[in-house]
Amino acid sequence: MSRNTKEKDVDGWIVIDKPEGITSTSTVNRVRRALTAKKAGHAGTLDPEATGVLAIALGEATKTIQYVTDDLKAYAFTIRLGQATDTDDATGRIIATSKSRPSDSEIRAILECFIGNIQQVPPKFSAIRVNGQRAYHLARRGKNPYLTARSLWVESLIMANRQDNDHIDLEMTCGKGGYVRAIARDLGEKLGCFGHVCRLRRLWSGPFSLKTALHLSSIDKLDKGLILENYRLPTEVALLRLRELKCTAEGAIKLQNGNPAAINTDRLKFGEQCWASFEGQIVAIGKFMNGELHPVRVFQKPT
User: Minimal CA–CA distance to 284: which of 53, 73, 60, 89?
Assistant: First the structure.
């Protein structure tokens, strides 16, 4: 039997507690195969050595991925002071060392520089495209990809613990596109002692947290029906930051055909994004203009 005849329409979100040593893409493929889902994607890449929340969208939920990637995320990580690596984490080659070690008060003072809207240059070993090629492909071939600084919103960054003279534990909440490895690199440089990430765990991403996560090792052991019943979250969980508007049966048909539909509300501003539901099911995401919802994404009946 071919793969296509086995696969089915499966919609919703599965939160995986990703272990070390596997890529985000491989994790998605493993979940998709276990649930025989036709379509799947993830909301925010985790490095292979990183662990924690990886929110996986199934079927129609893939249309809501951007609303999770645009949301805040929280990380707990450990920085090894005194060493810089070419990958900015423990998998890389040590390229610089220092015997200098900052005090706790010096570290906390410097952390203030990383809060708010900051500029961050991504690691050379990253998936950023440079002239059509991934930066990490160029770096592995010994080339030095030129990467420009990008804006990153850092909501909070605190030192949670100092394990010893060489290791500090930090917690960060940030917006889209942040690289924890770059935070470790830049912090080490500002402190004058170098640094790299030696442990990284994502605690939550938008509405998804470890509380509802399924460990990847369980995905092949548990019954498919049990997973979908106990761990699957509805598609609209990703849209908690958008207003929900209820539409009529006639409006639902119009929206699902890609046409605007009248929505009676005085709660929305012109151009504001929202989503429409009918009988408790998501119908469309769109922009509110002149009393109508103009769909940008439409959804079929969930399975």
Answer: 60
Cα separation, 14 vs 24, whole angstroms: 13
Contact between 209 and 203 (Cβ < 8 Å)? yes
Distance of CA 198 to the CA centre of its chain: 20
Using CB atoms within 10 Å of the CB of residue 247, give its burial: 0 to 12 exposed, 13 to 18 middle, 19+ buried. Answer: buried
Predicted TM-score (pTM) above 0.70: yes
Q: Which structure tokens are listed for 98?
A: 């220092």
129 alpha-carbon distance from chain centroid:
18
Residue corresponding to tokens 């765990």: 201
Residue 266 a catalytic site member: no
- Three-state SS string over 47-88 comes to CCCCEEEEEEEEHHHHHHHHHHHCCCEEEEEEEEECEEECCC
Residue 303 has pLDDT above 70, yes or no: no
Which residue in 11, 17, 47, 186 is the catalytic one?
Answer: 47
Distance, CA of 284 to CA of 293 (rounded, Å): 9
What pLDDT score does 4 carry?
Answer: 52
Answer whether residue 136 shows pLDDT above 90: no
